Amino acid sequence: MFNWLDNLMTLLVENGFHLSRETHVGESVHFFFYDTVKILILLSVMIFLISYLRTFFQPQKTKALLEKIHGPKAHVAASLMGIITPFCSCSSVPIFIGFIEAGIPLGVTFSFLVTSPIVNEAAFAVLWAAFGWKVAFTYAGMGVVIGVVSGMIIGRFKPEGHLEEEVFNGEGFNKTKPDMTQKERLAYAGEHVREIIKKVWIYLLVGIAIGAAIHGWAPEEILAKYAGSDNPLSVVIAVLCGVPLYANALGTIPIAEALIGKGVGLGTALAFMMAVTALSVPEMVLLRKVMKPRLIAIFVATASIGILIVGWMFNLLF
Does the pTM exceed 0.85? Predict the structure, then answer.
């Protein structure tokens, strides 16, 4: 799909910077410019399409829909809605609170909370750009499965008594906007593209820069030996390393792409990315405002097990 861009960036590196792609520096520079342009193109397209779709799923309508669904279907619906709702935990938590205020079962709300930061239009676009559509769709599907299963397991613990009182004292939703015209929907989608890229471009460039350094300089033999797909412990280590960090999926995917190019297992790299986006310490601090420690521990343990299983499965399948 992007052969034209690869050739164009090769010309830029060789004729503009007078560097050979056979060198570490030349290959790193090519990786940086090629990935930056490729990711921005797909990111803009996917954000626009999903943002347009999102105009039909305003918070109040989403809440009303979930109130009508019960049982496992409710978990599936909540998890799927997590894909098209705001793509960072700081935006997801207020909606999570709104679901609780509406009386939606807590297990169902956790299906939303787990899926929302892991699977979103931005991560999907970058995954497609980096690894192809099969990996992107498989990742999205497994992210939904993690959300559904985690929500159902957490619901078994009857966790309602482990919420802080502040949860019930505010407004988790903004007021429903009036129905939008076609022109307004398109304008919203375009504005959302600008807002998200403005918010994440620094994470994106830092991630690509780190990925470029890894791509050009990291010792391939060592990474393949200790973090290859045949080492099950590499997935565990990846999750443990991801938890203390703070970044969104956009910043971690280019790093994962570079690591995979050096022989790291696909599942290992994706487990690292999922741990950073769903289980980071900053997100736990945010959740502490609405949950008691025991509930946070249950959430972390359940999601961690799901991420580990997905990491091992990816290493076996790809």
Answer: no
Helix (H, G, I), strand (E, B) or coil at 102: coil
Q: Cα 265–115–300 angle (5° rounding)? A: 75
Nearest Cα to Cα of residue 258 among 318, 209, 315, 215:
215
Domain ranges of the chain: 3-317
Look at residue 174 and give its three-state secondary structure.
coil
Q: Which residues pair with 291 in a beta bridge?
A: 163
Are 142 and 93 in contact by the 8 Å Cβ rule? The answer is no
**Residue type for position 135:** V
Q: Which residues pair with 163 in a beta bridge?
A: 291
Instruction: Give dist(CA 314, CA 279) in Å, integer.
Output: 19
The DSSP code for 180 is P
Q: What is the pLDDT of residues 174-192, one digit of tens each?
A: 433 557 788 888 888 888 7
Q: What is the pLDDT of residues 247-274, one digit of tens each?
A: 555 667 777 777 777 788 888 888 887 7
Torsion of CA 162, 168, 172, 178, to 10 degrees: 140
Residue 40 phi/psi, 5-degree rounding, is -65, -35
Residue showing tokens 């970058």: 126
CB distance 236 to 308 below 8 Å:
yes
Sign of CA pseudo-dihedral 299, 302, 305, 306: negative
What tokens does 252 get? 């971690």
**Longest CA pairwise span in the chain (Å):** 65
Q: Give the whole-angstrom CA distance, residue 227 versus residue 120.
A: 27
Mean pLDDT, residues 295-316 = 85
